[in-house]
Every structure is written in structure tokens, then in C-alpha cells.
């Protein structure tokens, strides 16, 4: 836990095409992971790391996200009248988490463009960017270490994780040098989604960043890159060469909800670990697995 106050930016403007037709009318960030939408886990993580001001970047048809973090007087009144205070508390929890703001991205021009939309809200402050596809287990906090490294050095800090080389083409990948801290590396370069044979390492960028405000000047002049989008990776590559970028290597529990199979795994893993669901779920899982 850190006592520092930092603004957090959560890009949530993606189309979620891998989950169609479920995401035809529902944002992928609102897909439930057990009994909370994925984006609520990310907001809770931000708050636990000291963020009390959160900006969510929305795309079209994403009003469900802002509705989720708003109060629902009719539902709350109904639960109160029923005396169901446990459910009432869970409903109110998302409303009371933090000071949450929303801005639209407009055209879906990539992650770099989404981050750039936060410029006026963030101003001259260092800020965190948190992607909703990556859920970090609350028992393995990552963001506090990243904020601490930024405060110590004044540099941009990104989260890295060692991945199987067979999957490296799915990520931005960093070339790195060691530092005195085994959990921290110096990032010397970045490349977006390289082929396995072209990857400079197996250190993949995962969806947590602590960015200094000079990233906005770089993003404003960054040309569209891979996929015709403005890539945050390209701006970070420039920062790595000019100012310096650090990477915090994460070895904890992470759940990738951007892929259908991994999304299902995340639900099973998190539900199995819960005191209210695990005792009933784990024996069934063992029986089910034995039949396969």
C-alpha cells in the first residue's frame, strides 16, 4: 500500500470483437468475472494503490460502464426495504470507490490515442494507466511498487512479465538491462507484437503503466504504427531512448480476460479461491476433471 495520491486512467474504448455476440450491446469491460464486472476489479486495484481520481476512456455504446459506477436509487431502496443489507452494501461499493470521471475517445485510433485523451484531465501530473484485460490479483499488488520506483527516479515505469516465447507475438516486448533490484530492469527498447524470432526478450509488457506527463508531447506527434493505430509502445520506445524507462518484473497472479479461454480460467481460478464459493466449487472441479 502506498500513501501517494495518483490519478489513474483506464482505457475502455475497445470493441471487444473476440467476445461477440456477447459484446454486441455490452462492453467487454462489463463482462462478469464471477460476480463483478472486470472493470470494477481494475478500479479497486487503483484505489488500493492510492488513486482517488480515476478517468475512464469510453467508446461508443459504453454507457453501461458509467451506469455501473453511478447510484441506482430504485434498486437500493428495494434492497433496503427487503432488509438485504449485504447485497445493498455490494451495490453501493462500486459507487463509493473513488471520484470517477468519463471522457469519450471518439475514433478508435489505438491505445496511444486513448491515453492522449486524458491529457487535459491529468495535466502535469504523473499518472497510472491500467488496462482492463489484465486483472492483477489483489494478493499480489503490482502498482504500489511501480509508483514507488517512479517516485524514487522520476522515470516512466512499465510492468513486465516473462511469457512463453510461443505467445510473445501477442505483446509489446522490451529489451532490458538488469539493475541492482532483481524486480526492476532498465528498458532499452520496445517493439510491438514481434515475431518469435525477432523478439528482443521474453519480457512482455502487461497492462500497467506509470507515465510521466511528457508522454503526451510524444503521443501528439506519434504517427500511426502497427495496425494503423497510434501505439503507446512507440511513444514508450522514444521515452526509453531519451529519458529512460524502468520495468517492474511481475511474478504474481495475473488473469488475462481478453481471450475467451483465459477469461473462463480467470473466473474458475478466482471463484475457487473465494471462501464463499470455493468449498462447493473445488470438489466439483475435481470430479469434472476426472471425467475428461
From TrEMBL:
Q: Which one Pfam family would you cite for this protein?
A: NTP_transferase
Extent of the signal sequence: none
Coiled-coil parts of chain: none
Q: Which InterPro entries match?
A: GalU_uridylyltTrfase_bac/arc, NTP_transferase_dom, Nucleotide-diphossugar_trans
- Nucleotidyl transferase domain location: 7-271
Q: Does the keyword Magnesium apply?
A: no
Any one GO molecular function term = UTP:glucose-1-phosphate uridylyltransferase activity
Per the record, the domain of life is Bacteria
- Provide the E.C. number(s) assigned to this enzyme: 2.7.7.9
**What SUPFAM superfamilies does the entry give?**
Nucleotide-diphospho-sugar transferases (SSF53448)
Kindly state which keywords UniProt assigns to this record, in alphabetical order: Nucleotidyltransferase, Transferase
Concerning Gene3D superfamilies, the annotation shows:
Spore Coat Polysaccharide Biosynthesis Protein SpsA, Chain A (3.90.550.10)
Q: Which reaction does it catalyse?
A: alpha-D-glucose 1-phosphate + UTP + H(+) = UDP-alpha-D-glucose + diphosphate
The UniProt similarity line reads: Belongs to the UDPGP type 2 family.
What is this protein's name? Answer: UTP--glucose-1-phosphate uridylyltransferase
Q: What is the lineage of its organism?
A: Bacteria, Bacillati, Actinomycetota, Actinomycetes, Micrococcales
| Gene from which this protein is expressed | galU
Amino acid at each position: 500500500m502506498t500513501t501517494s495520491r495518483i490519478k489513474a486512467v483506464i482505457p475502455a474504448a475497445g470493441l471487444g470483437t473476440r467476445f461477440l455476440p456477447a459484446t454486441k450491446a455490452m462492453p467487454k469491460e462489463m463482462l462478469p468475472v464471477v460476480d463483478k464486472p472486470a472493470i470494477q476489479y481494475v478500479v479497486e486495484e487503483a484505489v488500493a494503490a492510492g488513486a482517488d481520481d480515476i478517468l475512464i476512456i469510453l467508446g461508443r455504446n459504453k454507457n453501461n460502464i458509467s451506469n455501473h459506477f453511478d447510484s441506482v436509487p430504485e434498486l437500493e431502496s428495494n434492497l433496503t426495504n427487503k432488509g438485504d443489507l449485504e447485497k445493498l452494501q455490494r451495490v453501493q461499493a462500486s459507487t463509493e470507490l473513488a471520484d470517477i470521471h468519463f471522457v469519450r475517445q471518439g475514433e478508435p485510433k489505438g491505445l496511444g490515442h486513448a491515453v492522449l485523451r486524458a491529457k487535459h484531465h491529468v495535466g502535469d501530473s504523473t499518472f497510472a494507466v491500467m488496462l482492463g484485460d489484465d486483472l492483477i490479483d489483489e494478493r499480489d499488488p503490482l502498482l504500489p511498487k511501480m509508483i514507488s520506483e517512479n517516485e524514487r527516479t522520476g522515470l516512466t515505469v512499465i510492468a513486465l512479465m516473462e511469457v512463453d516465447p510461443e505467445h510473445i507475438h501477442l505483446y509489446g516486448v522490451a529489451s532490458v538491462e538488469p539493475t541492482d533490484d532483481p524486480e526492476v530492469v532498465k528498458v532499452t527498447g520496445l517493439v510491438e507484437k514481434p515475431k518469435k524470432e525477432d523478439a528482443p526478450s521474453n519480457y512482455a509488457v502487461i497492462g500497467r503503466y506509470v507515465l510521466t506527463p511528457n508522454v503526451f508531447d510524444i503521443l501528439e506527434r506519434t504517427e500511426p504504427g502497427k495496425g494503423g493505430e497510434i501505439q503507446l509502445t512507440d511513444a514508450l520506445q522514444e521515452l526509453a531512448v531519451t529519458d529512460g524507462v524502468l520495468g517492474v518484473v511481475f511474478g504474481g497472479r495475473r488473469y488475462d480476460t481478453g481471450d475467451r479461454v483465459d477469461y473462463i480460467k480467470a473466473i474458475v481460478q478466482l471463484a475457487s479461491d473465494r471462501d464463499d464459493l470455493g468449498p462447493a466449487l473445488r470438489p466439483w472441479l475435481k470430479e469434472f476433471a476426472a471425467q475428461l
